[in-house]
UmuC domain-containing protein (Brugia pahangi), 168 residues
Amino acid sequence: MGKKRIIALIDMDCFYVQVEQRLQPHLYGKPVAVVQHSSGNNRGGGLLAISYEARPFGIKRGMFPEQAKTLCSELTLCYVPVGEHVDKADITRYRDASAEVFKVLHEFNSRIIVERASVDEAYLDLTALVEHIYETTDPSIKVFLFYFNSIAIYLFLHLLFIIRINLE
């Protein structure tokens, strides 16, 4: 059996909604949903992402926009842009936002291996980083680190992501 690895999953919650909110800051704190593109259908496809503010109204992924609006009349619908070919979605804004996040993840620490799973998810191999921290840490606090380092790393990465977004 091979060496045990320390793997973390980054899942950017409500990613498509967050991208839209960053482009339209007045949407922060409001019920928002992103409608995916559907070729040949002028009403769009199902809901791709829903903000936390919209969820208490019973709005779910995959719902059609009209149904969601009946549940929450204040719901703001953001449509995935249509590309130069009418039958294709233009997901450039989401890819660009994803690239920004992945750039931060790659630059954060050279001991972290980043593997993209999707536009809004990544696996981080933290093994080398944790081993380095453990090897360079005073033995008197290694027991503490043994139990708490994965939580601390998660919180630190999350904080880094929040700081990065707020700086832009």
